Amino acid sequence: MNIQWYPGHMTKARRMMEEDIKLIDLVIELVDARLPLSSRNPDIDNLAKNKARLILLNKADLSDERINNQWTDYFKEKGFFVVKLDSRSGAGMKTINGVIQEACKEKIERDRKRGIINRPVRAMVVGIPNVGKSTFINSYAKKACAKTGNKPGVTKGKQWIKLNKNLELLDTPGILWPKFEDQQIGLRLAMAGSINDEILNIAELAIHLIKFLKAEYPGTINERYGVDEDTKELDILENIGIKRGCLKKGSIIDIDKAADIVIDEFRAGKLGKISLERP
Predict the structure, then answer these.
(1) What confidence category does residue 152 fall into, taking pLDDT thresholds of 50, 70 and 90?
(2) How far apart are the first and last CA of the chain?
(3) pTM of the model
């Protein structure tokens, strides 16, 4: 399966971000804690050169806590400020204000020396599609400022959000990069829901996920679906289909329906806390 997805609005969004970056003090980058490296747009490092940087490991409630800690250390070693976050429940939100002040300490000090008091920190919120930027902003602001959805591509334009007298956020659309050189990155992004499902072969995607779970989280499939893991991935998917009653006319197994169940339940965290990559 060759996965590429770069709709036209992403080119426009990228140009817009290049224009706005000169107004910005801090870049807040959301990544998916289940795949922190694969869910980082490599263009952001270039775009955000010489800016203070904060990485939010969002959806940390869905990923393996032991591996979350490894990723936190990994990014801190590279000079980023890092916060683990579940923006849906608000877990981790309370620490963000202090971290932003710490990340922008030099800028605040420079302003003070120039006699500029109380100029708000201006932060650009960036990340790939469906990583939870709008949910984070709404949770942080404690009100609905940004449009949310559980599919990629909901935010299409930019908007400034004044959070308080100390902080203004610029919400930006989720952008990918034009070509995935490594198809494993495309696969992980597809599993996590950052690629439009309409362009994917969900059955093939489920088979890749089952293969990964067998290798990295043995026992997970058996525990959730009550099927034998010691068989081929397609057989496992068919057995899940039987267990869950995914049958078409003539008692034929509906593989696509079974695949949808596996992918949806992984994305919802029903298979347990799973990380798709480690440092």
Answers:
(1) very low
(2) 25
(3) 0.87
CA dihedral 142, 147, 151, 152 (to 10 degrees): -110
Q: What residue numbers bound the domain in which 70 lies?
A: 8-171
Same domain, 160 and 245: no
Cα 272 to Cα 224: distance, rounded to the nearest angstrom = 9
- The answer to whether residues 137 and 60 belong to one domain is yes
Among the ranges given (67-71, 141-145, 175-179), the one the predictor scored with the smallest mean pLDDT: 175-179
Percent of all residues in the chain with a pLDDT value above 90, rounded to a whole number = 61
Comparing 69-73, 75-79, 172-176, the range with the smallest average pLDDT is: 172-176
How far apart CA 21 and CA 7 sit, in angstroms, is 22
Task: List the strands of the sheet with 52-58, edge to edge.
Answer: 81-84, 52-58, 26-32, 121-126, 167-171, 159-164
Phi, psi of 119 (to 5 degrees): -75, 125
What is the C-alpha to C-alpha distance for residues 152 and 177, in angstroms, rounded to an integer?
14
Q: How far apart are CA 206 and CA 156, in angstroms?
A: 29
Same domain, 22 and 132: yes
Two tokens, residue 50: 């010489």
